[in-house]
Design a protein that fits this description.
Elements lengths: L3 E2 L5 E2 L20 E2 L8 E4 L6 E5 L4 E7 L13 H4 L14 E3 L15 H4 L8 E3 L6 H26 L29 E5 L4 E7 L4 E8 L3 E9 L6 E6 L5 E5 L17 E6 L2 E9 L5 E9 L2 E2 L5 E6 L5 E7 L3 E9 L5 E6 L5 E4 L12 E6 L2 E9 L5 E9 L2
Parallel strand pairs: 9-11, 18-20
Antiparallel strand pairs: 1-2, 3-23, 4-5, 5-6, 7-8, 10-17, 11-16, 12-15, 12-17, 13-14, 13-16, 19-26, 20-25, 21-24, 21-26, 22-23, 22-25
Length: 407
């Protein structure tokens, strides 16, 4: 079942979507999760896990795209390094050759008796096999071997250069942030066709992202609005991205992957979802596929209308499989307490998302003490916080919530 929205702006999740629980139904002690927040621009950066590769940073978090890291120093092989690369060629004039398995001391026409090794060399009865030198080569044969070796070295060097320059792949995989993009792997698909449409609130639209192109929907807000934009590809293996531009063409909010926690709203982790307060004005909603693939998609849009009065206690009813979504305005930056109490047999969790995209998740205030009601005490930025309350098992329940300044 795909997500739907009611006239009141409540977001309904898929019946299969659940808060992430360890396999087997066991529970772990809950802790506050801080969503990644960064001002680094999207691009390819050295992998923070220390691997010799790059990883793609989408401007919000690390993706699962990688590309080999170009070598910092080019190693040149050729005639001048042939001796070090192929030391056995030094002894070519003496008849050195690839080892041959023979029985020590066994005479053979044209084969020299080898130097003894191990028990067999001391006259033992065991048929010990050893490696020995082959027969001598003529000078012409030695020259031919050297020339062939140099040709191989040249081919190896050319292959190394080809791999270091990207192997002819115009879209090598991603990496992640240091001081700035490294320049490797930043190539993008050739711009394709842009298709256009309209974004109605509330509503949904079925559209298509062209190959290496984008879909652009016009959106007009007559008043300040907390918006939910939910895009889902018809192909679950593809990776959509939403970017919201203001009238000047500047990006005001964007999302690539909703991740594990926001799957309570339905969809899969690769599906983007935007939860953002926006002032009145004209906007463009741009939908693209990260790898430039063509795909059909559905874009659902709704307005968050539920409000939590600051400093008061509010009762919230959770329907089965339906998370509650609301907003609260924090007057200033500082430490605040979000206190959720279940009035039935449910197991609620709370998720907040701030104006800059900071995501916080809390489940149990005291797991060891069997107190499964969430209590979120953290430092928040000023402004509108989007608040999501969902039951761990998607069950129907009633909760109370209060938002106060932490003493």
């Amino acid at each position: 079942m795909r997500a739907t929205t009611s006239a009141a702006g409540t977001v309904r999740m898929d019946s299969s979507a659940r808060c992430a629980r360890p396999p087997g139904g066991s529970r772990e002690r809950s802790a506050v999760y801080h969503g990644t927040v960064s001002e680094k621009e999207a691009g390819w950066y050295p992998d923070p896990e220390g691997e010799n590769r790059q990883r793609f940073w989408d401007g919000d978090r690390w993706t699962e795209y990688y590309t080999p890291l170009a070598p910092t120093r080019q190693e040149i092989h050729g005639a001048q390094t042939a001796t070090a690369d192929y030391p056995y060629l030094v002894d070519a004039h003496a008849g050195a050759h690839h080892g041959v398995m023979v029985t020590p001391g066994t005479p053979s026409s044209g084969w020299p008796s080898p130097t003894g090794l191990g028990p067999a060399a001391a006259g033992g009865s065991k048929e010990t096999k050893v490696f020995t030198a082959g027969r001598q080569r003529s000078p012409a044969g030695v020259v031919a071997m050297v020339i062939a070796s140099l040709l191989i070295v040249g081919l190896v060097g050319a292959l190394g250069w080809w791999l270091a320059t990207g192997g002819g792949d115009p879209n090598p995989g991603p990496t992640g942030p240091t001081v700035g993009p490294t320049g490797t792997g930043t190539s993008t698909p050739t711009p394709g066709t842009t298709t256009t449409g309209e974004v109605d609130l509330p509503g949904s639209v079925d559209a298509q992202v062209p190959a290496a192109g984008s879909w652009v929907g016009n959106l007009t807000l007559d008043e300040d609005t907390t918006l939910v934009l939910d895009a889902r590809s018809a192909d679950a293996t593809l990776d959509l991205k939403i970017d919201v531009l203001d009238a000047s063409g500047s990006s005001v909010t964007a999302n690539d992957d909703r991740g594990r926690d926001l799957q309570v709203l339905g969809g899969i982790s690769l599906d983007p979802v935007v939860l953002a307060p926006l002032p009145a004005g004209d906007y463009q909603v741009v939908v693209t596929e990260v790898e430039g693939a063509e795909t059909d998609f559905t874009l659902s849009s709704s307005v968050v209308q539920e409000e939590l009065p600051f400093g008061e206690t509010t009762t919230v009813q959770l329907e089965e499989g339906v998370p509650w979504v609301g907003v609260v305005d924090l007057p200033a930056a500082g430490r605040y307490t979000f206190d959720v109490r279940d009035l039935g047999d449910g197991d609620p969790a709370i998720i907040t998302r701030g104006p800059s995209g900071k995501l916080l998740v809390q489940d149990d205030r005291d797991y060891a003490g069997d107190d499964y009601d969430p209590l979120l005490e953290e430092t928040f930025e000023a402004g509108t916080q989007v608040v999501i309350i969902a039951d761990w098992d998607s069950a129907a329940t009633t909760v109370t919530i209060s938002v106060t300044e932490t003493p």
